[in-house]
Structures are given as structure tokens and as C-alpha cells.
Amino acid sequence: MTTPLTPEMIGRAPKALLHDHLDGGLRPATVLDIAGQIGYDGLPSTDEAGLAEFFRTAAHSGSLVRYLEPFAHTVAVMQTPESLHRVAFECVEDLAADNVVYAEVRFAPELHIDGGLSLDAVVDAVLAGFADGEKAAAADGRPIVVRCLVTAMRHAARSREIAALAIRFRDKGVVGFDIAGAEAGYPPTRHLDAFEYMRSNNARFTIHAGEAFGLPSIHEALAYCGADRLGHGVRIVDDIEVAPDGTARLGPLAAILRDKRIPLELCPSSNVQTGAVTSIGSHPFDLLARLRFRVTVNTDNRLMSDTTMSQEMARLVDAFGYGWSDLERFTINAMKSAFIHFDERLAIIDEVIKPRYAVLIG
């Protein structure tokens, strides 16, 4: 590759996204509009630019706990069927505009019942928004497949209930389960009954692990909980020794993670904001990619990180000099790791991703 990839060029590439939070991706204008409609007066700014700046700077805290605090405002405006549908619809619009062809978007239904909705009604509204967004994107010539992960908050005690919710909606657009929230003090094993329920129903799940907490969190997620994927997982680098000559020795946890091809849902910009890494250039993404871990590129929270999939890829290109073949590999990694059925994954890889990259590579 002799010509450096520009953000505009990267924007044309097809993308697959596995780790994106619905309540972390609202448009600032939408937050303001819904807040005005429902009389929510807790926003820190009343203009679009000021609100966007607030979310961006508040999230860049160096702490996962502090990073999560601004979500109180987005969740506050997502308490009615209409607002949930709108946010989900606009999410699909924004992803399709960035040439994302497949996305799994997650959210915690238990955070959206303050207005009296049932958990089922919350999921119904979001799935309807996704479905309508898919139809609109297809009509606009940007087809996209969007599926949902339901998330349980790891500090709460509803994970088994949310796992059951995932199974109830498994044929309606929910393809998996997740736990999220502050890691320290809330290990994955607190929710073993939820993971056992998912396994007993032959269902898939991912676990936020190895972001704000280290190797023990990853070990529990894999050895005790049986996670299919890891949300973030950047601290697996603590189990890898790199010699001065660049050769690497994997510890037992890193080795089993690679051997079993457990996907890592890496979110570079978010990892900098939460203090998991100090900069994009020091992110272990490149080391893990060179060692052939199954790395994927993700946004985490598009509003909080002021980012898109194209921007995340562009930042990695700037930091590590990646070319088209690298971005194609990361995209296929993600598509291989999706929670939809094998034939559906293969169709998107063979009929969408590879042909479009072939054109870009020339």
C-alpha cells in the first residue's frame, strides 16, 4: 500500500460492528429535543454544540466509573416507546451512513422502565426502531443488518431476568446477552445463573471484562462463565511478555484466549477515555493483531467518544500504518464473530464485505 488511507477512503469501506451501546450513541440534537418534550431539565447545556462538548469531555475521565456518569442524561430521555423507537431508528441511520453493513447494538432494558414500561415493552420499542431503520436504510441504498444484545447491569440483581428476556426475544432480533457496568467489585461470577441459563438455551453471550479490571476478570469470564466474546479485554496484554527482539511469550490465559479464537471487542477511543490505555499509539491492538488474536474494531459509545467506525479505523491506520488488507481482516474477524447464524455470517462476508473490499483494493 503506497497511498496512505484517508478518513474519506476508509468511510467507503464496509464495516461490521459488535460493540456499540444504544444509550451511548444518541445525537445531541435528539437528546435536547426529547428532553424538551418530556420536561427533563437536568441537561448540562441547552445547545447542541455545548451538549456534545459536555459528553465528550465528561467521558474523557481516565476512570470507567466516571466515564459512565454522563449516561444518566441519555437514559433519562429514553423512557417512552416513542423515544426508544426514535433513538433506535436514528442509530441505524447513523451506522448505515458510515457504511456499517452489520451491527450488534446493546442496551440495558432495566434502565428504561422508570416511566412505567415493562421490560418486554422496552425491547419491543427498540426492535421496532431497528427494523424501521433497516427498511429506511435499504430504501436509501445503504442496506444494513442490525441485531440487538440485551445487557444486564453487573451491580444489580436482575441478570437472570434479563437473560430470560434475551431468550424470549431470540427470534425477534435479540441475538445475545451481556453484562456491563463498573468491573471492580462486581466480578462476572456474580451472574453465573444468568450465563448458565443462556448456555442451557443454546444461546450466545459476551461479557465486559478486562477493561477497568485486569486478568482475574478475563479469567472468570472465560473459565467460569464461558463467554463467547470479551467486551474490551485489553488487559489480556498483561499476560503477554514481549522480549527486546520483539518475540512474544503468551501466558496460559492469553494462550487459551488465542487458541480458542475468543473475539476481542476492542474499542480504541473509549479505552483511552477510561484510562485502560494511555493513547491510541500505545493500545495493545497492534500487538494482539500481529499475534493473531481475533481482534475487532468497535465504537463502544459514539456520542461519548465523538466517533464513528470510520474514525476508529482511521485512528488505528494513523497509529499503526494499516492498509486495506488489514482493515478487511479486522472486518471479517468481526463478521465471523457475530451472534447470527453461520449461513447469515457467510453471506455477508462473501456477498458484501469481500466484493466491496476487492473494489477498494483494486
UniProtKB/TrEMBL annotation:
InterPro entries in the record: A_deaminase (IPR028893), A_deaminase_dom (IPR001365), Ado/ade_deaminase (IPR006330), Metal_Hydrolase (IPR032466)
Protein keywords: Hydrolase, Metal-binding, Nucleotide metabolism, Zinc
Domain Adenosine deaminase: 14-354
Enzyme class: hydrolase
Residues annotated to bind substrate: 21, 23, 181
Cofactor annotation: Zn(2+)
Cofactor mode of binding and number, as noted: Binds 1 zinc ion per subunit.
Reactions this protein catalyses: 2'-deoxyadenosine + H2O + H(+) = 2'-deoxyinosine + NH4(+); adenosine + H2O + H(+) = inosine + NH4(+)
Enzyme Commission numbers on file: 3.5.4.4
A molecular-function term among this protein's GO annotations: zinc ion binding
Gene Ontology terms: cellular component: cytosol
Keyword Zinc: yes
Record carries keyword Hydrolase: yes
Residues involved in Zn(2+) binding: 19, 21, 208, 300
Active site: 211 (proton donor)
Site (Important for catalytic activity): 232
GO biological process: adenosine catabolic process; hypoxanthine salvage; inosine biosynthetic process; nucleotide metabolic process; purine ribonucleoside monophosphate biosynthetic process
Gene3D superfamilies to which the protein is assigned, alphabetical: Metal-dependent hydrolases
Role, per record: Catalyzes the hydrolytic deamination of adenosine and 2-deoxyadenosine.
Family: Belongs to the metallo-dependent hydrolases superfamily. Adenosine and AMP deaminases family. Adenosine deaminase subfamily.
Annotated protein name in UniProt: Adenosine deaminase
